[in-house]
Design a protein that fits this description.
The protein is of the alpha/beta class. The chain is 46% helix and 11% strand. It has one domain: 3-Layer(aba) Sandwich (Rossmann fold). The chain is built from 16 helices and eight strands.
C-alpha cells in the first residue's frame, strides 16, 4: 500500500506547481516535445491501487484517441521536401542541408498516399491498451458479456477500434461485440461547435499566440545549418514555416517504422526543442484547454460526450454484467474532456502563457497518440447502489475535484451531481 501511495504522489503532481518540469522531462526524452505527436508511452503507473474491501470492477466507460498516424495533408511532407530540393538544385544547401533533404525524402516516401492513416505502431498501441485493460479488470470481460464500441467516421479511428476489439476477442472469444461508426453519433463523439470554434479565433487570442510564437521561435541557427547563403533563405524561403514543418516531421518519426533508421531531432539543439514544445503547448492550452483567453469555455466542447457517458453509465448499472462501452476519436476530444473533468487539476486557469510549464500544464501527459480516459466502476453486488469508480488517464490513476475518503476512488453519485450541475451551468 505504501508503494502505491508513493506512485500516486508522483503521478498526481502532474499538474502541480513544479518549476519547468517539462524542460527536465524533455531534456531526458526529446520525444516528449512532440506534444500531440508523442507516440503512446503506455502507463507510467504499473500497479494500480486496490479497491476497497468487497468491491469488484463491473463496467468500463472509455474514450480514446486513435493511435500513432502519419501526418495529415501532403503539405506536411511536400512543402519542406520541395523547398529543400529546390535549394539543393541551386547549390544553396550545406552538407547538413543535403543530409536533411535525404531524410525528408525518405520520410515523405514512406508516408506517400497515407495522409493521416494509422501506422503499424498505432495499431500495436491499441492492442496493448486492450490487453492491459483486460488483464487489469478481468471481471468486466468475463463470459459472454457485451462490448459496445463506437468510433468517429475517420478511418484511423475505426482501425484503432478494430485493433482493440480484435485483441479483446483473442483474450475472450465469447465476447458479444457491437461496433459502429456513424455520423448519427457525431453530436457527442466529435461535436463541431461553431461558437466555440469562433471563440478561439478572436483577435486577442491570435495576438497572444503570435506574440508567444515570436518570443520562442528562433529559426535562424537552423537555417544556417541548412543553407550556405543567408540572403537566399531570408529572401526566397518561408523559413519560419520550414522550421516549424521540419520540427513536426522530427516529432512524427517516432510513430513510424523509420524510427529505427533515422532522426531529425539532431537538427535542433535542446533550447530549440524545448521552445518548439512551449509554442505547441501554449497553442493547445488556449485553443482546447481552460485558458482565460477563451474564457475557460473550450472544454465545454465535450459537454455532449460527458452527458452521454453519464447517462450510459447510469443505464448500464441496471445490468448484472454490463461489460464495457468503448469510444474512439481524436485528441481534440480527449484534451478538452480531460479539462472538463478537471483531471489532475488540468483545468487550472493560467493567465500568463509563459508560466504554463512552471504551473505544470504539460500537454504530453494528456494527449499523446492513443491517449485514453477510462472510467472503472466498482460495486459489491449487482443490487448494491453504492457504486464507486476511478478515472484513468492514459492508464494512470487520476484525481478529481471531489471529496473522497478512498482516493483514487470516488462515489458515483457525488460525481454525477457535481458534473451535471457543471454542465447545466454552461450557456451556449
Amino acid at each position: 500500500m505504501k508503494r502505491n501511495v508513493i506512485i500516486l504522489s508522483f503521478l498526481f503532481v502532474g499538474m502541480a506547481s513544479f518549476g519547468q518540469q517539462a524542460r527536465i522531462d524533455i531534456g531526458k526524452d526529446k520525444c516528449l516535445s512532440a506534444s500531440n505527436y508523442l507516440a503512446y508511452p503506455g502507463p507510467l503507473q504499473r500497479t494500480l491501487t486496490a479497491a476497497p474491501a468487497g468491491y469488484s470492477p463491473f463496467y468500463i466507460s472509455h474514450y480514446g484517441r486513435h493511435g500513432s498516424r502519419y501526418l495529415i495533408g501532403a503539405g506536411d511532407y511536400d512543402k519542406p521536401y520541395f523547398t529543400l530540393l529546390r535549394a539543393g538544385s541551386l547549390g544553396k544547401l550545406t552538407n547538413k542541408g543535403r543530409e536533411v533533404l535525404e531524410k525528408v525524402r525518405r520520410i515523405r516516401e514512406e508516408a506517400m498516399g497515407r495522409d493521416g492513416e494509422l501506422t503499424r505502431r498505432g495499431a500495436t498501441q491499441h492492442k496493448g491498451i486492450a490487453k492491459r485493460m483486460y488483464e487489469r479488470f478481468p471481471q468486466v470481460f468475463e463470459g459472454k458479456t457485451n462490448i459496445d464500441a463506437k468510433s468517429t467516421v475517420v478511418i484511423r479511428c475505426i482501425l484503432s477500434m478494430e485493433n482493440e476489439l480484435q485483441q479483446l476477442l483473442v483474450l475472450n472469444p465469447q465476447l458479444n461485440i457491437r461496433h459502429d461508426a456513424s455520423y448519427h453519433d457525431m453530436y457527442y463523439m466529435n461535436l463541431d461547435d461553431n461558437k466555440l470554434e469562433k471563440n478561439k479565433g478572436t483577435k486577442e487570442v491570435k495576438r497572444a499566440l503570435e506574440e508567444f510564437d515570436v518570443r520562442h521561435s528562433h529559426p535562424e541557427r537552423v537555417m544556417r545549418e541548412l543553407f550556405n547563403d543567408d540572403k537566399y533563405w531570408m529572401d526566397s524561403v518561408k523559413f519560419s514555416s520550414l522550421y516549424s514543418k521540419l520540427f513536426t516531421l522530427a516529432s512524427n518519426v517516432q510513430s513510424t517504422e523509420l524510427r529505427y533508421k533515422l532522426s531529425l531531432y539532431d537538427l535542433f539543439n535542446d533550447d530549440e526543442i524545448y521552445d518548439n514544445w512551449l509554442v505547441n503547448n501554449a497553442y493547445w492550452y488556449v485553443t482546447f484547454g481552460p485558458s482565460p483567453l477563451t474564457g475557460g469555455r473550450q472544454p465545454f466542447s465535450q459537454r455532449n460526450l460527458l452527458r452521454k457517458m453519464i447517462s450510459e453509465a447510469d443505464s448500464c448499472m441496471a445490468y448484472d454484467h454490463p461489460g464495457a462501452t468503448l469510444r474512439f476519436g481524436h485528441e481534440v476530444d480527449v484534451l478538452p474532456l480531460a479539462c472538463l473533468l478537471e483531471l489532475n487539476n488540468c483545468a487550472k486557469q493560467i493567465d500568463d502563457l509563459e508560466k504554463l510549464d512552471d504551473e505544470g500544464w504539460n500537454n504530453y501527459r494528456i494527449f499523446p497518440m492513443g491517449c485514453n480516459i477510462q472510467f472503472i466502476f466498482y460495486r459489491k453486488s449487482a443490487k448494491d447502489k453504492d457504486v464507486i469508480f476511478k478515472v484513468l488517464l492514459n492508464e494512470n490513476e487520476t484525481t478529481l475535484p471531489l471529496k473522497t475518503n478512498m482516493a483514487p476512488y470516488y462515489h458515483w453519485d457525488d460525481f454525477r451531481d457535481y458534473y451535471l450541475k457543471k454542465l447545466d451551468s454552461y450557456k451556449e
